[in-house]
Amino acid sequence: MSPVVNAVIAAAGLGSRLGLGLPKAMIEVAGAPLLGRLLSMLEKKFQTIHVVVGYREELLIDYCARQHSNVILVRNPQFRSTNTAQSYALGAQHLKGKTLFLDGDLLIEPRSLDAFLDAAARTDLLIGLTEAKSENAVYAQARFQSKPEEDLEVVSFSRDVSMPYEWANVFSGESRTMAGANGFVFEHLAARLPARAGLLELAEVDTADDLRNAVEFAQRHGL
Amino acid sequence: MRTAHCFDIDGTVTTTEILPAIASELDIAEEMATLTQATMSGAIPFEASFRLRCAILGQVPVPKVQSIVQTVPLNQAILEFIRTRSEDCFLVTGNLDIWIKPIVERCGCGLFSSQASVDQGRLRLHSVLDKGEAIEKLRASGDFGRIVAVGDGANDCPMIERADIGIAFGGVHAPAPGVIALSDYVANDGEALCRLLSTL
Predict the structure, then answer these.
(1) Which of A20, A172, B68, B77 is surrounded by the most beta carbons within 10 Å?
(2) What's the pLDDT tens digit per position in A62-82?
């Protein structure tokens, strides 16, 4: 039993598919930026939160200075040529202990995150899954063991074969989990499958359709 | 591996700028704040601006300056961090040794600063610190395997650039863009900064 003690949020990416000219984490859903929503939730649970910034970093730095001054911003000046795995490695570089890694473009239903963190305390590596719904899903082959919810396991990832669950862009593990990783986060995690999985209710904002869905998601869950 | 921690004073260790506080004695605090702000943002070269500010503030007797500096509030978390690691902490400031003495005494750590003396009642400026050279000196001492630097103003750039890990501090005001561009981290709160320093 070792609880998650840090959070690392990747918010360095361009968000070019949405074409709003903003870092995706700064996109507002129902009046609040995605990053602000995540931080308000995470600040209640973690003292140490690192946000990795790159594209238009000044917007995120300024926003955090005004609204979330406890957060440490980690700069990834190579954001144009690196991906989320490298941002995670950079963000967690000097941290110790179990760490929650998550994308900055997620809208997460808080109770599902609570349950995820409870489960994360009981296992070295917990991979977040959600019901498949996004346009560019990375599907996850998952199986329940004896007790549903308790023992969900992810066996493999696939971009081609449609399955009920997809990779949620959230996981918890030792702070060095992504050290030296190349490629995509799920590819790096694939080397450690099968692994425990935790279900999250969330909306990822990647495309204009996603954004519309996220607004509905926020309304449905009263966020 | 021993790590040296280098801190800018104005707007990092102190929660207000020192020179405008001294200038209030001459009733020109706002003018001094404007000049200081333009300098911190990098719009005016540090050394020229600092010499000018010394020429103006040199009118205030040094004991008076020190009594004002004594009352400048310090960031408590940073002060505590420095005091518990005084052997490994250094204040690195363009400010004058004879002016900031009360702060150095409160911190009880090492110092790199500009230097001045009083000659027949007149302030004599001997040298203006290049913060980059301070880091070089510290490295040349061979005492430290790694140097971490924390600052907010344009004159901190050479220090941040030469350090192994640079942190832009925005606890008092937004760090100069040039400082951010050279830093690995940005911290906007003293306690968060000290937690980060402890993990590095």
Answers:
(1) A172
(2) 999 999 999 999 999 999 888
B177, B186, B199: residue with CB nearest A95:
B199
Name the residue range of residue A110's domain: 6-220
Residue A1 lies in a domain: no
Number of CB pairs, chain A paired with chain B, less than 8 A apart = 46
Residues from chain A contacting residue B199 (CB–CB below 8 Å)? 48, 94-96
Task: Specify the number of domains making up chain A.
Answer: 1
The answer to whether the CB of A127 falls within 8 A of the CB of A154 is: yes
pLDDT value at position B151? 97
Report the residue from A69, A74, A95 with minimal CB separation from B188: A69
Give how far the C-alpha of residue A10 lies from the chain's centroid of Cα atoms, to the nearest Å. Answer: 7
Q: pTM for the whole thing?
A: 0.93
Q: Which residues of A touch B (CB under 8 A)?
A: 47-48, 57-58, 61-62, 64-65, 69-75, 94-96
Whole-number Å distance between alpha carbons of B149 and B4:
8
The mean pLDDT value of chain A amounts to: 91
Domain edges within chain B: 3-16+61-199
Quick one: DSSP state of residue B13?
I
**Tokens linked to B4:** 């040296």
In B, which residues are within 8 Å of A59 by CB distance? Answer: none
User: Distance (Å) from the C-alpha of residue B21 to the closest C-alpha of chain A?
Assistant: 25
- In this prediction, residue A146 carries a pLDDT of 63
A43 to chain B, closest Cα gap in Å: 12
Look up the CATH number of the domain holding residue A93.
3.90.550.10
CB contact under 8 A, B192 and A70: yes
Paired residues of A131 in beta bridges = A165
| pLDDT for B68 | 94
Average pLDDT, rounded, for chain B? 94
User: How far B191 CA sits from the closest chain A CA (Å)?
Assistant: 8
Domain contains A31: yes
Interface contact A75-B180, CB threshold 8 A: yes
| Level-2 CATH architecture, domain B3-16+61-199 | 3-Layer(aba) Sandwich (3.40)
Q: Using one digit for the tens of pLDDT, what is the confidence trace for B155-189?
A: 999 999 999 999 999 999 999 999 999 999 999 99
Q: Is residue A24 part of a domain?
A: yes
